[in-house]
Amino acid sequence: MLLSYIREGGNLMENLIIFIALALFLYFLIAGQHISTLLFGIGILGIFLLEGSSVVTGFIQNDPFSRTASYALTTVPLYILMAQFIMQSGIVKDLYSLMYKLSNGRGGVLGIATILLGGMLGGVSGSGTATSAALGQIAVPELQQRGYPSHLAGMIAASAGSLSAIIPPSVFLIIYGVVAQISIGQLFTAALIPGILLMVVFSLVAMIYLRRSKHEFNSTTQASEMEEVPIYRYIIVIISGLFIFTAIFGGIYMGIFTPTEAGAVGAFLALIMAGLLGKLNFRFLNNALVETTKISVMAMFIVMGASLFGRFISLSLMPRKIIGLLEPLLSNPALVIIIIMVFYFFLFMFIEGAAVILMTVPIIKPLLDTIQVDPLWFGIMLTVVCTIGLITPPVGMSVIAVGGITKIPIERLFKTGIVFGLIAAVVVIGLLIIFPELVTWLPSQMR
After folding, report:
1. Residues 6+ apart with CB under 8 A from 115
2. pTM for this structure?
3. What is the per-residue pLDDT across 155-207, written as a single tens digit (0 to 9) for each?
């Protein structure tokens, strides 16, 4: 009886500590605290309240270094460096100019071409915010000239940029692979078909919106001529882009490169492309290296903070408690997955994607093991939801990037973004649940 009372008292104290920690987390998140600092601080506080200062000291001495020294995480700065070489060389403007000419100025074709361009850039840049900002600066004015309402033009650019979350090489996929201990090469391959599905859905939604928004057209606008680009630049950009894409995915798929080696090869090829385009100088290298360092350090701080936060979650036995709460539903795995995806959908609206993955996957993974869900399939589902989160309020980073560049009111963009996000969620996630082979087939063919 006494032991039972003590055990119940201990459980009550643990639950109280969890409640206090999560309440503080939400408060400081709403107040605008940086997510890396928040994860670090709440993790230390939670561990201290549960186990005392000696355990906190032990974790601080070991965990941050052991997590960031992981070989798998070396892929992050390499792909970011490749992205910076590509973005700094100005090929976004060149590719959009080519798309403009191929569309022959037709508005509907140009909108679809913008989304396809975003997907292709996502495949080589891995930066949703950068791609969205670049398309916002270049594509939005041209779409408006072709009769697109400003909110639809901005939303097309934002949704195109958000595709970099799922089109490999994606930093989100790399981080999920590290946390869930899954082959990054398999994740890259598995993401191709879902990424194409998202591009198709975004294109169809844009076309439907375009037809329904004809009353918003400004018929007095006239098409502007884009800056003339020499033919040789188009040739260099197309050949280099195809070569980078083929080298990365062909090398990974055929087993020639590891994902880390593929990132190094891609960065080297992007550097050669910049040289052929005449962009290679001290300013180019300085900007690319500085931006790569900033983004990589930010990512590593999030990893370190999430490591300590994950330790707190493990010590609190939260995964076991969640499994206990969901036990009546475990006989229906599909329902559990839907509940989890709805939960993630709301998380990605508020918190940066990499932080969500690092915070929650250690909690969710035991539940997935219990209901025997393929972690590869779940990772792609998670990345699809992350892609949608980049265009949904209140924190959709792609939308904020486009709004900041174009000065289109954020609330108008988000109003359209909710429609894009909900339709993509229902169609793409529904198809992946009904036909999991859309994710698993390509990785099963890898060497």
Report:
1. 156, 159, 160, 163, 199, 202, 203, 206
2. 0.74
3. 888 888 888 778 877 778 888 888 888 888 888 889 889 989 999 999 898 88
- Nearest-5° angle of CA 130, CA 378, CA 122? 20
Torsion of the alpha carbons at 266, 167, 378 and 362, rounded to the nearest 10: 60
Q: Which residue has the tokens 């697109």?
A: 148
Where on the phi/psi map is residue 251: left (φ > 0), alpha (ψ -120 to 50), or beta?
alpha
According to the model, what pLDDT value does residue 197 have?
A: 92
CA atoms lying within 13 Å on the CB side of residue 49:
20
What the block records as the tokens of 109 is 């074709």
For 384, residues 6+ apart whose C-beta sits below 8 A from its C-beta are: 166, 194, 198, 424, 425, 428, 429, 432
Q: Nearest Cα to 155, choosing from 100, 101, 197, 118? A: 118
- Separation of alpha carbons 399 and 157, rounded Å: 8
Is pLDDT of 370 > 50?
A: yes
Angle subtended at Cα 110 by Cα 167 and Cα 288, rounded to the nearest 5 degrees: 45
Pairwise CA distance, residues 70 & 345, whole Å: 29
Q: Of 338, 359, 429, nearest to 388 (Cα)?
A: 429
> Which residues, at least 6 apart from 175, have a Cβ–Cβ distance to it below 8 Å?
76, 299, 303, 354, 357, 358
CB 184 within 8 A of CB 174: yes
| SS3 assignment, position 90 | coil
Which residue, 141, 155, 151, 152, is CA-closest to 224? 141
Integer Cα distance of 272 and 248 in angstroms: 15
